[in-house]
């Protein structure tokens, strides 16, 4: 059974940092583009960041550019999101996702992703 399991969420003060992890099991995603999305209460799910299967290319939403860093360790089948200078607007459930096809490009569109985790809550207090 393929699973993506996020961890590392929690409560943090504005200006603080958190590091999210997404551990994959059931198959290797070393040849798949992966990404992070988030959903705040009452809002639609939105793109946060994505990374090429090789790790050589990344893209970010304007709202997190310069504050968040996406990375991956293909040997560990794990995706990361380092979040710095957190703001109250970053409060949301964060989801990791993986594209199903091998060697496909990165995408900011949620419907391009085939595998999803259950999410981890990030709450930033102001």
Would you write up a description of this structure?
The protein has 126 residues and is mainly β. 0% of the residues lie in helices and 47% in strands. The strands form two sheets. Strands 2, 4, 5, 6, 9, 10 and 11 form a seven-stranded mixed β-sheet that branches. It has a four-stranded antiparallel β-sheet with strand order 1-3-8-7, with no helix packed on it. The chain starts with a strand and ends with a strand.
Element-level helix/strand string: EEEEEEEEEEE
Provide the low-confidence segments as ranges. none
Number of strands: 11
**Could you say which structural class the secondary elements and strand pairing correspond to?**
mainly beta
- Basic shape: globular
Instruction: Give the DSSP E fraction (strand runs of 2 or more residues).
Output: over 45%
In a nutshell, what does this entry contain?
By secondary structure, this protein is an all-beta fold.
Any chance you could write out the topology, listing elements then pairs?
Blueprint: E1 3-7, E2 10-13, E3 18-25, E4 34-39, E5 46-51, E6 58-60, E7 68-73, E8 78-83, E9 92-98, E10 115-116, E11 120-125
